[in-house]
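Running this now, will post back.
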Amino acid sequence: MFMIMKPTSGLHLQAELVGTFGGIFSFHSLSQVGLLLVDEQMAMFSYSDHPLNRSFGLPFDYDRALDILIAPGLKGILIFWSEKNLLVSRNSGQLVESVQVREGQRILYNSIVKANITIHSVAANENELAVLTEENNLYYGSLGIQSSSLIKFADQNIWSQEAVLMFTDVGMLEILTPLRDVLFPAFDFQKCRLNIQALLMDPQLQAGVCKVELLQGEFENKMYTIDMNSQLELTALMIPRPGTLPVPLVSVSNPHSLGLQAVICEDGYTYDGNTKHRLNISLKQQHHWGRADPNFTSSIKRPTISTITLDIANKEISCVDLKPLTALISVGCDLEKKIVIQNEFSACYHGVLDPVALQDNYSYIIEREAYDPNFQGQQAKKDLEVHYPYEKLGCPLLAYYDIPWKPVVELWREGKFQEVVEAEYVLLEMNGLFTYTYSLTAGTAGCSAQPQNWTTITKMAGDTASFSWDRENYMSCHDPNYHEPLRWPDVPYQILGGQTENKVVFDQRNGIYIFFISIVDPSYSYCRLETTFSVYVYGAFPLSIFPPEITIVLLTAATLLSVWLAYMIPQLLHTEQGLEGNGFWVRLYQRCRKSGACLWGRC
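Update: finished.
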């Protein structure tokens, strides 16, 4: 008996798991690790990640050890079997059901246990299941979307103690029996090939006629990528047998972790006398369709994989060749996406900068008072000469220093404009310039928790990465699950876009800024959307040598002194001292005039 404390990904620790190990499984179709627990002849699965880590799979009978076969195709189909039992799960153990035994459309037994047979070997592919019993019987069934059942073929002499089953293709089954050679230590194999479709033609089996003549789609056995806020459109063609109304059914593996939802629309038309049905399948994450509780899906930050399967509801067992259509879905980054900064009115367009000069090995100086090579906002020890990479950045955007500003970010895919990005993003001047701030603070931005900033991010990343703020480590201060206390509401709020109107505010300084931009919104795209761009800030007058306060005091004092002198001088001229002074200036003027005349030879 084991008692296991299971770690979880940041939500809470699940209670102690009591039971014995039945196995540990990597479920790719759920992006989970599953732990099979057995306790008192009952078993259940426990899972590693949100949201399945908060609950268990439904318990099922486990009175003896079961072999577990994972069917191919990444659909999450598990087959549990022992000599006296056969169970199937279509969702990686969350729900485990018994396999029924049928005769035609009639259910003979709800489980293999009641059929009183002894299973010797089991084989499965993406759609089919075969069972060989010690009673020398062969059972065959389909692994349908809705239910799984078996029918018994006519008695055949095919069983031996060493015999095993294997599917070689859809509807093609082989029974392999090793043959000993008394003279040689190697083995040969006897192969018994069975065409399932031919066997089902036996009228005693009452298999019924398949209601669908054709089911095909170009997406079969292909791989697609679906990014956040993206929608995948698939099409298929179905031709029903005349007089029948089959119902197409689409299923998606990994719905809990991805919140993927597929919607199928059927459009019927007639061509060459046959009624055909065009099936249009739209696939998108429920998280972005607004049709699911956010707690239903797993961490939206984590990319994963899934499969989508198109099949027919309640499909007859005779539809052997009509296998389901399956495609692999990579829910992750669309590598064709990139972000571009809109630059319709550049500094070159307005004649502020010369594009020829920028391309001619142009460089500029950043004064030591304006930058910090360590990106901590501290003054550097010397000026910095920067070479401008025109071939990478082109001509800079133009921004007036006294108007709050933010870039217009565009999303492009395969060279085509998609939309203006409204998601949250961050900026950082790549040369360490700190002569700008933001129009909002943590308090005015409405933060309920202390927001992240470049200082905290770089400290967390260490010296390995200066520009390491992205969707993987971003936490919104508006997220109710982010519990960092709001201790400093007056610090600048460094996140742009999203639900706030935050903007960049430049200091009174002209010059070029080279910005790194990163989309940090974890719900916008699985890609790390990053780029660099440049801005030329203009319109700032040179800073005064003296502080403004001193300049204002001196101007005020000079004005008051001028007014006082303009009033006092006329008053003083009418006094005795004023008359004497006036006579002194008159005599001085006459002497100077006489000296000047002698100098020019007029004495």
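The chain has four domains: 2-205, 212-331, 337-538, 550-591. More later if anyone needs it.
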